[in-house]
Amino acid sequence: MKKQLQTAIAAMLVLGTLSLHAQTGTAAPAKTTKKTKQAKTVTAVKIEESQDAKAIRELQEKMAAQQAQIDALTQQNAAKDAALSTAQTNAANAASQAAAASAQAQSAADAAQAQAAAVTAVKSDVSDLKNANVGLATTINDTKKDLNDKIDSPSVLHYKGVTITPVAFFAAEGVWRERSVNSDINTPFNSIPLPGANEGHVSELNFSGRQSRLGGLFEGNAGSYKLSGYFEADFLSSGTTSNGNQSNSYTLRQRQIWGKAETPSGFAITGGQMWSLVTEDGTSTNNRTEKLPNTIDAQYTVGFSWERQPGFRIQQRWGDPKTGAFTAALSVEQAQITSFTAASATSGALPTNFFFAGAGTGGGLYNAYSGTYANNVAPDLIVKAAIDLPKAHFELGGLARFMRDFYYPITNTSGPYTYAPNYTSNTKGAGGVFGSIRVSPNKYADLAVQAMAGQGVGRYGSAQLADATLHPDGTLEPIRNYHGLLSIETHPTPKLDVYGYYGGEYAQRTVYTITQAPFVGALMGYGARNLNDAGCIALPSNPGSSTGGSPSSPSTCASPTRYIQEGMLGFTYRIVNTPKFGRLQYGINYQLIQRGLWSGTIAGPRAQDSMILTSMRYYIP
To answer: pLDDT digit string (tens) for 284-301?
Structure first.
């Protein structure tokens, strides 16, 4: 910039000089002499010199002023250059410092971000730790509470490696019957009195606590096998000293007592007294899942297929019952012949050359009071298949029975009965099929139907109809039986169950004509058409006893039962139901039972009885 200013000033000086010469050179010429000319020339030179000097002086002054200005500008420029250099240096330094500061700021930002992330992580860890501590504290509290509960109120008892679960309820029950059957809380359905019996005209009211139950479940895990044992007992039994006069001291009886071993693969074997495999199960063919009617009556309801008897059961399950499973089972169970009948209208027409049972002897621990025990040749054999679905359960099975008696063959052909000196045995095959379907479309209802049909299967029905009669030659003949039950069980609320059942049982007429003298043409068997039934519907006569009350004589009401049917309605309400304190419930049942006989001399005598049963029970948890 300084050089540029110097160049500009020099150019101004040159221009000023040239302008001055031009002013002096342009004056008008004059005619003068030589001296004059010289004088003039000198004067002009002086003037010119004077003017030049002045001009030079002025120029010098200007130059000096300009030089001063130039110097000032130079100084200013130098100051500016110095300031600019300083500014540039400062700017560079500032830029460097700014870069350093930016780097430091970025570093600080990165550090702050990292620190923030670390703080966030620490906060998260602290929060997780707090939550973990809260959860741990809750777990500790829950564990402590659970331990205290297990110590103070255990759900099971422990003995070595075995857990023991008590089973019990305590019952206060009552029954009113329109027509008396002289019975406790259980109803002998095949003894409903006809109009010809004294009991057919009087009612009865009985209270009972005998259905109260005691029991326990014992379970142990032995590695490859889960072992379990179960027993339950009630007081629906009577000893020789039992009575209802003062102490009401009825005896404890065995309901179930069995042991079981099962594997994780679904195989199980059970032995002992238990519900028969004929009984409908709720899951697979497992013990303790039996689907019993919700009735107070200890004989349950007409049409229900069941037995509780000693036996052995094996089963194999495939699949999970909660999602879908198939089970096959086989059992061998105690056999018996019940309600044997072989009536004839002709006195003496029945052969006396046979036997198939005898009274129990005290030394053999059988009870002579309650009837006879069959001389069995083989146990009852039962097979069953079950299918479990999430909302349904299906069963189908078969029963094989072997009824044996011993008889002396008849030897004469024309006169009164004569028999061979030695007896022989005869075994008749019997049995039938059974099945059930149970569906639960929702949590409010369960619908079920079960049925059984076959020869000699009467003992597997609640009514205990006859399952055998007699041939004229002295051999047994199974009676065809049918029975079935329809169940509707609803659960309107968690505390209330309302249910209804209808069931029926039937024993087919099984009659033979005697061809042996002197009773040729006489009828015998089950339901002979010429049996005397006059006393079935006639008004009862004086029984000849101060105690009174006995059914009509079989000689005047001889026909056996053809069918029994029952309708039952009831409800159960759970007042209290907690896993800690147990369940308190009450219920009421109404039962209407009709019993019809085979036609003898009177067409189809019938009996009917209405009953109301009440129950209050406390179940331990």
So the answer is: 999 999 999 999 999 999
